[in-house]
Write a structure and sequence with these properties.
CATH architecture: Sandwich
Helix content: 10-25%
Distance between the termini: 41 Å
Strand content: 35-45%
Number of domains: 1
Bound molecules: calcium ion
Order of helices and strands: HHEEEHEEEEEEEEE
Structural class: mainly beta
CATH class: Mainly Beta
CATH topology: Jelly Rolls
Number of strands: 12
Largest sheet: 7 strands, antiparallel
Length: 198
């Protein structure tokens, strides 16, 4: 059964050769959610998503279990919901980053995405966070969120709900940290929309 599946995948890859070329010349944008423990010091397990989910394969093997990401391609003008669900091995601090998919820096304008309406939920609990990015703090970032560099996030009036959303891309994510309890399911979901004129 396994070998038949491998053959099927190979056949599919051969048949879809042209679409790889299309993707290379016309990058699609994508929404992405990263979750990682502080210093990748503890693992996150049972990770599932409605998008493509993977560990951080650029990290050393012993750190990969502490950093996961989920991403989803966006090929139309609609808002799309992406979620990632996980269970921390132990209690501690985790970081959540909302960003766009990775593309070469010289194509940055092709993969900026709007993000709005993030929800963080914990098993056996009420929602622990619901944010439509309507409140900005004195630094220009949505309250409770930061950016990796010393710059403000980009605010947009293209919103899914309320009046504002944020514009993010791979190198310009919105990040926040939350305390988690080991052994419980957490789910982070957010809505993404292409910034490009499609
Ligand atoms: Ca909003």
């Amino acid at each position: 059964m396994r070998s038949r599946n491998v053959l099927f995948v190979l056949a599919f890859l051969l048949m879809s050769g042209t679409s790889f070329a299309d993707t290379a010349t016309k990058p699609v944008c994508g929404g992405r959610i990263d979750i990682y423990s502080e210093n990748m010091g503890f693992g996150l397990k049972s990770v599932t998503s409605n998008g493509l989910v993977q560990p951080a394969d650029w990290l050393p093997k012993n750190k990969q279990g502490g950093y996961w990401l989920a991403q989803m391609e966006i090929r139309d003008k609609e808002w799309h919901y992406l979620w990632i669900d996980f269970v921390p091995d132990i209690s501690g601090v985790i970081y959540i980053a909302l960003r766009g998919s990775l593309y070469p820096a010289d194509k940055s304008s092709l993969h900026e995405v709007f993000v709005d309406d993030v929800v963080i939920e914990r098993e056996k609990s009420a929602k622990i966070l619901e944010d439509s990015f309507e409140q900005l703090d004195s630094t220009g970032n949505p309250a409770g969120w930061g950016t990796p560099a010393a710059k403000n996030s980009q605010v947009s009036s293209v919103s899914r709900t309320g009046e504002l959303s944020m514009i993010v891309w791979h190198d310009s994510p919105l990040i926040r940290k939350i305390e988690v309890k080991g052994g419980l399911h957490y789910k982070v979901g957010a809505w993404f929309k292409s910034y490009r004129k499609l």
